[in-house]
Design brief:
The chain is an alpha+beta fold. It contains nine helices and eight strands. The longest helix has about 70 residues. The two termini are about 65 Å apart.
């Protein structure tokens, strides 16, 4: 009888041929359940273009480019340094990395089910057989025997995946792994956007603090003027009281702004993985200009946003679950060949008469499950339909976020221009009111009203600049990150 070598041992040709034949049948077998097809973007009916106004322009798709350090386009070195610290130390990002590692390990474990599980079994025992044991033949003598038993065997366990249960399982976990990759990218995007939003909100607070401090200096000079005129008997004490009230109100605003700035500072500390009591950012000077963002087409965004990619991969995983559930309708085939030696003495364990082998196939088929299998298939189908709905909702939300960002930027740009004009007029009004008051042709209430209007407009300009930066961050996040090298 011819022999074939497997892992240093030899299987009879009949076993090898049967095992190879079943494995080939498995590889060529069918996989039950629907095959997954990536959703057609046309079915989701994205609009042909964004509703934009000049000077917006359409950008060219750059899906092959890295979409990482988009924050560097703002040209703020402090923000860039904070983003790098967040990418290295943020705990939410660390948890997402751990989930991805789990998903990859799960793929390796499930994919191992496509290969035979080979093991080595050994046994060494000394036993006594009862002399009074039950007999199957009363003509046979019955003796008590003491003997040894030594065994060494190579075992193989292999599921012949004729109906694709294992293949669908691998398909599902691979899609889940790809979903974890997209989730990790989405976590990075959300983290960087959240950090930038808190940082620019802090910068906005700094701008407002500068405005309020300038107003306090102006109001103190006005208080000195009102006090001097009162001491000379030119005015009553009402002017002094009114100016003191305005100054105290502005000082209160200063304290509130400092508190708000502290909240943003603490949020930044948590995002970069630093205890809030140990972190501080100095008050910054100057203004940051948001970058010009090329929009591209709405259909391009479906390839750029990681949350859309994650939802699409969830659909693929859920689709494979239908095949796994449907495979329960069909029989399962388990191959259990063994090859080895068995002897009552170690010295004769590897002799030819000690050779033993077996080849078996176990087949199991559910005949009645009380509707359990059908319920499992219906459950998987409903789960798939749920992922389809989530995918479509994600696309619609993404389109809304981008359009909201576009509208917000256009509106804020117009408001900035109007506010700058209002500030010029408010400063002129303060100068005129002071001159009229010094000449004695106006009451002090005109000066107070002019100063309040100037403070309000200057704070509004600082707030609009901050909101413009926030909307730019929001728009970049909505578009899926950076748009190319």
């Amino acid at each position: 009888m011819s022999l074939r070598c497997v892992h240093g041992l030899q299987f009879p040709a009949a076993i090898s041929a049967a095992l190879a034949g079943l494995m080939l049948t498995t590889l060529g077998g069918c996989a039950v359940g629907p095959d997954y097809h990536k959703p057609d973007q046309a079915q989701d009916q994205p609009p042909a273009a964004w509703a934009v106004e000049a000077p917006w322009r359409a950008g060219e798709p750059g899906d092959a480019h890295a979409k990482g350090a988009w924050w560097e386009r703002f040209g703020d070195p402090v923000l860039s340094q904070l983003e790098q610290q967040a990418m290295a130390n943020n705990q939410t990002l660390a948890a997402a990395n751990a989930r991805l590692a789990q998903a990859r390990a799960n793929v390796t474990g499930v994919a191992a089910g496509q290969l035979p599980q080979v093991g080595l079994a050994s046994r060494a025992s000394r036993l006594q057989i009862s002399g009074d044991r039950p007999l199957t033949n009363y003509n046979s003598p019955n003796f008590s025997t003491v003997q040894s038993d030594f065994s060494l065997a190579l075992t193989v366990n292999y599921e012949a995946d004729l109906f694709g249960r294992v293949r669908r399982s691998v398909e599902s976990v691979r899609a889940s792994e790809q979903q974890s990759v997209a989730d990790l990218e989405n976590t990075r995007l959300l983290l960087s956007a959240d950090l930038a939003a808190n940082y620019f909100s802090l910068r906005q607070a700094d701008s407002e603090l500068r405005v309020v401090n300038r107003s306090i200096a102006l109001q103190r000079r006005s208080l000195e003027l009102a006090t001097a005129r009162h001491e000379l008997g030119a005015t009553s004490g009402l002017d002094v009281a009114q100016q003191e009230t305005l100054l105290e109100s502005t000082l209160t605003q200063l304290d509130l702004l400092r508190r708000i700035r502290g909240l943003y500072e603490h949020a930044i500390a948590t995002l970069i993985g630093t205890p809030a009591p140990l972190f501080s950012l100095p008050v910054t000077e100057g203004e940051v200009t948001p970058p010009a963002v090329p929009l591209g087409l709405p259909s391009d965004m479906l390839q750029r946003r990681p949350d859309i990619a994650s939802s699409e991969r969830a659909m693929a995983a859920a689709n494979a679950q239908i095949g796994i559930a449907s495979a329960a309708y069909y029989p399962s085939f388990i191959l259990n060949p063994t090859y080895g030696f068995d002897s009552n003495s170690m010295t004769t364990l590897f002799n030819a008469p000690s050779l033993m082998w077996s080849f078996g196939v176990s087949v199991s088929q559910t005949l009645f499950s009380g509707g359990r299998i059908g319920a499992g298939v219906d459950f998987a189908k409903a789960g798939y339909q749920g992922t389809v709905a989530i995918y479509r909702r994600t696309v619609l939300t993404a389109l809304q976020e981008v359009q909201d960002g576009i509208t917000g930027v256009v509106t804020l740009d117009s408001a900035l221009v109007q506010t700058q004009k209002a500030i010029v007029s408010a400063r002129q009004a303060v100068d005129i009111a002071n001159a009229r008051y010094e000449d004695g042709v106006a009451i002090y209430l005109e000066v107070i009203s002019a100063e309040q209007a100037l403070l309000s407009n200057e704070r509004q300009l600082a707030q609009l600049n901050g909101q413009r930066l926030l909307v730019s961050v929001f728009l970049i996040k909505a578009l899926g990150g950076d748009w190319g090298a």
